[in-house]
Amino acid sequence: MSSSGVTLDAIPKVDIDKSGVFKYILINVTDKNKQEESPVTIVRGYAHCNYHSDILDEVEGKLQPLQCEVLGGGRISHDADFKRIKIYGYSQGFGKADHEVTANIIKDAYPNYTITISDEGY
Asked: Is 52 a catalytic residue?
């Protein structure tokens, strides 16, 4: 267990806003004190963050002292009423996340949703 009490297996894989269009990042989280543990890949996306780096700042603050490595970013359009999530675009600062990986992680958290990906758009 890290000194903050956060363990890799206790971190939710997905934390995104309940609806709307917003930026997201795909992150590998590791515990530098337990290098034998595999990293956990998580998705984070919030409308209140104007930049992808703002999401990282927020996540790092919550997960201290765990290490966060951004794998890329993009945008998510989350339509809760119709149970649809669209993953698309890229981050100017972190590059494009692997939307296929993102979709697979989100499918586990939103099993009754239709999830689509696209390389179109910013």
From this structure: yes
Average pLDDT for 46-56: 98
Which pLDDT score, from 0 to 100, does residue 1 have? Answer: 42
Contact 21, 86 (CB under 8 A): no
DSSP alpha helix (H) spans, 15-98: 52-63
Q: Which domains does the chain have, with CATH numbers?
A: 13-118 (3.50.20.20)
Binding residues: 23
Annotated binding site for substrate: 23
Residue 55 and residue 71 in contact, taking contact as beta carbons nearer than 8 Å? no
Model confidence at 3, pLDDT cuts 50, 70, 90, reads very low
Per the listing, tokens 């903050």 go with: 4
Q: Which residue of the set 48, 52, 78, 99 is catalytic?
A: 52
**Helix (H) / strand (E) containing 104:** helix 99-109
